[in-house]
Write a structure and sequence with these properties.
heterodimer, A: 106 residues, mainly beta, 7-stranded mixed beta sheet, 4-stranded antiparallel beta sheet, B: mainly beta
Amino acid sequence: DIQMTQSPSTLSASVGDRVEITCRASQTISKWLAWYQVQPGNAPKLLIYKASTLESGVPSRFSGSGSGTEFTLTISSLQPDDFGTYFCQQYLNYPTFGQGTKVEIK
Amino acid sequence: HVQLQESGPGLLKPSETLSLTCTVSGGSISDYDWSWIRQPPGKGLEWLGYISDSGSTNYSPSLRSRLTLSADTSRNQFSLTLSSVTAADTAIYYCASQPRSLTGTFYYFTFRGQGTQVTVSS
């Protein structure tokens, strides 16, 4: 299995802050990476696929970058509705997810 | 606008077989490929398996011996069967769509339902 490791595990930031979440793969996955947001009581929401392609309807403050083994999800200006847990997922082969990054609004 | 509805028993006993159904509405089961994903309480996401409308499947290696996926195009549904459940199978189970590629399928997911809670307890 390809292991996905996210950092940090938890972050607390203020509205308007720039937030970055890192995801590292245990082997190269090219750009076969997706990001999801999970809020309590809701199903996961696809934000980004192919490392940097924004899913339709997702606000442009979300962006993704990286290739190979290191990837970043950036929220350019944190909004109150951005709380939740963010997961990366590789799909080079059998899909595997990172352990999640919990984002709290100060 | 395709929507999904997961259904099945909320509570099972250890060693029983879990059966879940995902009903596709607002579109056809042939519009996408499909996967099942679960999230145990307080934990991360786990991909379980994939099925196409033609019945092609791909299973997580860790569950291959217990998992069976099937599709019923006449009912616009696809289903999951997981045998010999234990407490470790307690989770919210989601069905999700995934887009097709020119040569197969892409394994990233759009969750179009709310999921269904499954609890395994004696």
